[in-house]
Design goal:
Helix content is 47%, strand content 18%. It is an alpha/beta fold. It folds into four domains: 227 residues, Alpha Horseshoe (Serine Threonine Protein Phosphatase 5, Tetratricopeptide repeat), CATH 1.25.40; 69 residues, Ribosomal protein S6/Translation elongation factor EF1B (Alpha-Beta Plaits, 2-Layer Sandwich), CATH 3.30.70.60; 119 residues, Rossmann fold, CATH 3.40.50; 102 residues, Hypothetical Protein Tm841, Chain: A,domain 3, CATH 3.30.1180. Strand 14, helix 20 and strand 15 form a beta-alpha-beta unit. It is globular. About 10% of the residues have low confidence.
């Protein structure tokens, strides 16, 4: 399909951006040294985009419920994305990203065309960059503002080159980082949307690589700007969504842009979580309902109180972010301007310094599970369960709320699915900011979670318990059975709709005609490399008699291998297999 920017594209952009930030979150957090070395930029960007994606999903689902022909318009979808980012913005970087999306939304909403062309996208990128510069009280080069401006400039240059007859519009994409007004290019062709959005991505990458030399904190640590690295991931997702090309997983934003690896000592030149020397001690964020006329006085007052001031929004709703020493004065300023709510105050570093008496329960395990039987099994093993429906992906806020409900000082988190790890990781970061010691064990299947829970021992030291559970999960190979929905190429060959697929460690290894036969072949494959115990977790659609048949197969063909069977009840997978 030709490149396009419409409502489905925006929804895809949200999903791809969330996935990209989920993969890069820890890397972005690790290089976060400016404006405060608090190691949460990647998490804040992830949470901001997660809120945007949820808002877009809600709008699209509401239209889908009204009928197949009632899809949302681009304007509705982009407005939802912008609003969701605004109300869910976290930290300095998330607040700036929310303003970038708002700027794009305002530009595209003013465009009369139902589907924007390359020129409209260029204008939207420029409006986004300019509005973000205006939202920051004291903008600095070498930040995500620089990256946003460079992306807009590169896109405009590519469009102008193509309009002038350049055979390779991307060749003129590199260049400046300062904002400028592009104007409307003459005679843009309808097929330039893809090259222009890719040019914006390349321009952002080049600008990001240069940020190390633009700020002293980045130069000292030998890293690029963390917010800029996150913005590059978002722009890469936009390019993938617009062009319809598969996400370029192999191209790590950090690998492409970071000039040199930094040592841990360099990255954490400030004590972990502490504000920069001489800087304010608190981060204050709140949503503010206020008229536009009240915002300039608010900016002036907050600017006098602290630094890192960013005020974004409009139409009566604003997101206020500032670093201050006097929290009360910052909130009072909001009260005088309007009605502040969703107030969040973070004391850099001090929020993690809790005494053992701050919480009652010492340690807890939180597990993400699908299926009533699996939930009951994990609860019997002592875990706090976050139950998931078919195909449901939990929000990080839901997971962090489960962590808080435990009341424990130490929490071990089991995502039990590779696709659930980004949200679980963001939730762990939120909980750590609240003073909870959290360890995320990267379990990729429920059977790995069961293995980890089997060796959980609360009386052990926390680190020893985490190591034992991680080792047990890592020593468990996992497999699952699924039914193919359509013809497709797989690692095991071509499958047809209705075929039973046996996936081992996430890859299709066996294609069969029935569940029992395919499961037996999968077990033989897995046990060929050795094993002492097989775990079978039966799903809701497992055929009758499957468990005893497979148990007999293991007993007859693989000596000294024990079999354990559970009724998991997972809705979409007839069988999960674990081999320890």
């Amino acid at each position: 399909m030709p490149p396009s920017l419409d409502a489905p594209t925006v929804r895809t952009w949200c999903r791809l951006a969330l996935a990209a930030l989920g993969r890069a979150r820890e890397e972005i957090d690790a290089i976060n040294v400016y404006p405060v070395a608090d190691g949460d930029t990647g998490t804040n960007l992830y949470l901001t985009v997660e809120s945007a994606a949820q808002s877009v999903d809600a709008v699209c689902d509401a239209h889908a419920a009204a009928g197949p022909a009632a899809g949302p318009s681009l304007q509705e979808t982009f407005r939802a994305m912008s609003h969701g980012a605004l109300i869910g913005a976290r930290g300095n970087s998330g607040t700036i990203l929310a303003q970038l999306l708002r700027g794009m939304n305002e530009s595209l909403a003013a465009d009369p065309a139902p589907q924007p062309d390359a020129a409209a996208l260029c204008r939207a990128l420029r409006t986004a960059a300019d509005s973000a510069y205006e939202a920051v009280a004291h903008p600095a080069e070498g930040t995500m503002l620089t990256v946003a401006a460079a992306a807009a400039t590169a896109a405009q240059r590519a469009l102008e080159a193509a309009s002038a007859g350049d055979a390779d519009p991307a060749a003129s994409a590199g260049g400046a980082s300062a904002p400028a007004s592009p104007g409307r290019a003459a005679g843009p062709r309808g097929d330039l949307l893809g090259p222009v959005v890719r040019a914006a991505q390349r321009g952002a990458r080049e600008a990001l690589a240069a940020t190390t030399g633009q700020l002293g904190a980045l130069r000292e640590a030998g890293v690029v700007d963390a917010g800029g690295l996150g913005l590059l991931a978002v722009l890469g997702a936009l390019a993938d969504a617009v062009t319809g090309e598969a996400p370029r997983r192999q191209e790590s934003a950090g690998a492409a842009a970071r000039p040199a690896p930094a040592t841990a000592a360099q990255v954490h030149a400030c004590p972990e979580g502490d504000a920069a020397p001489g800087g304010p001690a608190f981060e204050v964020i709140y949503l503010l309902e206020a008229p536009s006329a009240a915002v300039p006085p608010l900016r002036a007052r907050l600017d006098a109180l602290g630094d890192s001031l960013v005020v974004v929004g409009g139409d009566g709703l604003w997101n206020v972010h500032v670093h201050v020493d006097d929290v009360g004065a910052a909130i009072e300023a909001g009260i005088e301007a309007g009605r502040p709510h969703r107030i969040r105050v973070t004391h850099f570093g001090a929020q993690t310094r809790r005494t053992p008496g701050d919480r009652g329960r010492e340690r807890a395990v939180v597990a993400l599970v699908r299926g009533e039987g699996m939930a009951a099994l994990c609860e019997q093993a002592g875990a706090v369960v976050v139950a998931l429906g078919p195909g449901e992906a939990p929000a990080s806020g839901e997971i962090s709320a489960a962590v808080r409900r435990t009341g424990a000082r130490e929490v071990i988190l089991l995502p039990n699915g590779a696709e659930l790890r980004p949200a679980a990781g963001a939730a762990a970061a939120q909980a750590r900011a609240d003073g909870v010691r959290v360890a995320l064990i990267p379990t990729r299947s429920a059977v790995q979670g069961i293995a980890a829970l089997a060796v959980h021992e609360p009386s052990r030291r926390f680190d020893e318990d985490v190591v034992a559970m991680t080792s047990a999960a890592g020593a468990t190979r996992y497999a699952e059975l699924a039914v193919a929905e359509h013809e497709s190429w797989t690692m095991a060959g071509v499958c047809q709709a209705g075929d039973v697929l046996g996936l081992i460690d996430g890859d299709v290894a066996v294609i069969g005609a029935d569940v029992a036969g395919t499961a037996a072949r999968v077990l033989d494959r897995m046990l060929a490399a050795g094993g002492e115990m097989v775990t079978l977790v039966l799903g809701a659609t497992a055929p009758e008699g499957l468990a005893p048949r497979l148990e007999a197969h293991v007993r007859d063909t693989h000596l000294a291998v024990d079999t354990v069977i559970y009724e998991g009840g997972q809705p979409s997978c007839p069988l999960l297999i674990g081999v320890e």
